TrEMBL record:
This is FlgD Ig-like domain-containing protein. Residues 1-22 form the signal peptide. Keywords: Signal. It comes from the Bacteria.
């Protein structure tokens, strides 16, 4: 089986439209203070050569969970990979990675994926959820 490469025009069009790398604001809790800042993922990545980098900074200690999902045509979200389970992390910059694998440990199909980050501030019910889109391709 050979992997197909997405045409450059598709990648450029997605970047221009903001479909890739566009960050939605946090949901849940207050809006005047963000637990997570600087949430970034690789807008496009080649799973054969390098993982999708996930970077963020916690302003306070928080419990963080990162998941990769695929959104179907009907809007249903299917878990592709659990990058981290809910884990207490200290304040500061953090990095995680997704190597493009699916639930069975094999490479997931190339395409568009949503990286979800959930953070709950320690000692409160304050929670945020963030989403970024990444496009995986293979050559």
């Amino acid at each position: 089986m050979t992997a197909r490469t997405l045409p450059l025009a598709v990648v450029l069009a997605a970047l221009a439209s903001g479909a890739i790398g566009a960050c939605t604001p946090p949901t849940g809790g207050l809006t005047d203070y963000a637990v997570v800042e600087g949430f970034r993922v690789s807008p496009t990545f080649n799973a054969f050569s390098r993982p999708c980098e996930i970077r963020y900074t916690l302003q306070e200690p928080a419990t963080v969970e990162i998941r990769v999902v695929r959104v179907g045509l009907d809007g249903e979200r299917a878990l592709v990979h659990q990058v981290t389970v809910p884990t207490r992390e200290t304040a500061g910059p953090r990095t995680a990675a997704w190597r493009g694998t699916g639930p069975n440990g094999l490479f997931a199909p190339q395409g568009e994926y949503v990286v979800e980050l959930y953070a709950t501030l320690d000692g409160t019910d304050r929670a945020e959820s963030w989403e970024l889109t990444t496009l995986m391709y293979r050559t």
